[in-house]
Specification:
Chain A is mostly beta strands and about 120 residues long. Chain A contains no helices and 11 strands. In chain A, strands 2, 4, 5, 6, 9, 10 and 11 form a 7-stranded mixed sheet that branches. The chains are: A mainly beta (about 120), B mainly beta (about 110).
């Protein structure tokens, strides 16, 4: 199993540009998550999904959009990049058992810089 | 409001020494408690978790943690640190009564001195 994969690993965007961060998992997990990690801070939840076709906002959803058309994929869209979105983005997934309190499996992250 | 505090930003220990990383939380209900580890350039990996029962929980890589309700703490311990334990450690807390959300601490970066 590849686990949770994320692409790209690094990206530099100009202010106002758009991009999609890709996330895929091959563990047949229903739950998937997007987090951002800023220096010296814990992870903040952006969006999460409890299954295909179902998404919900987390703690810091502004400036982002998600979709979940399949169990495997959970892309994160930045429409108008802003410097405040410079961060490391992590995708994670978990099986349904305890919902968001099940063990979460994390991808390696995408380091995004907006200048 | 719910919160998680990891008071130590950075800790350095010698290889073979014991380790204790602190985690304090503020939650109204009995929380779900987790410790995750992040090695450089990688995503987070679960070390251990506490939901209920025995307050001393064993995890992977020789780590353990103890839930102390009276102190609102869930400190992570290891009796003998290895150089490969150098990483960042995150405590995370959640409670069903507070919605389906995990709150992560700000992390403790562990350096291991040879």
């Amino acid at each position: 199993n590849a686990g949770v994969t994320q692409t790209p690993k690094f990206r530099i965007l100009k202010i106002g540009q758009s991009m999609t961060l890709q996330c895929a998992q091959d563990m047949n997990h229903n739950y998937m998550y997007w987090y951002r990690q800023d220096p010296g801070m814990g992870l903040k939840l952006i969006y999460y999904s409890v299954g295909a076709g179902i998404t919900d906002k987390g703690e810091v959803p502004n400036g982002y959009n998600v979709s979940r058309s399949t169990t495997e994929d959970f892309p994160l869209r930045l429409e108008l990049a802003a410097p405040s979105q410079t961060s490391v983005y992590f995708c994670a997934s978990s099986y349904e058992g305890q919902g968001v309190f099940s063990e979460q499996y994390f991808g390696p992250g995408t380091r995004l810089t907006v200048t | 409001a719910q919160s998680v505090t990891q008071p130590d930003i950075h800790i350095t220990v010698s290889e073979g020494a014991s380790l204790e990383l602190r985690c304090n939380y503020s939650y109204g209900a009995t929380p779900y408690l987790f410790w995750y580890v992040q090695s450089p350039g990688q995503g987070l990996q679960l070390l251990l978790k506490y939901f209920s029962g025995d307050t001393l929980v064993q995890g992977i890589k020789g780590f353990e943690a103890e839930f102390k309700r009276s102190q609102s703490s869930f400190n992570l311990r290891k009796p003998s640190v290895h150089w490969s334990d150098a990483a960042e450690y995150f405590c995370a807390v959640g409670a069903k009564s507070s919605g389906d959300k995990l709150t992560f601490g700000t992390g403790t970066r562990l350096a291991v001195r040879p």
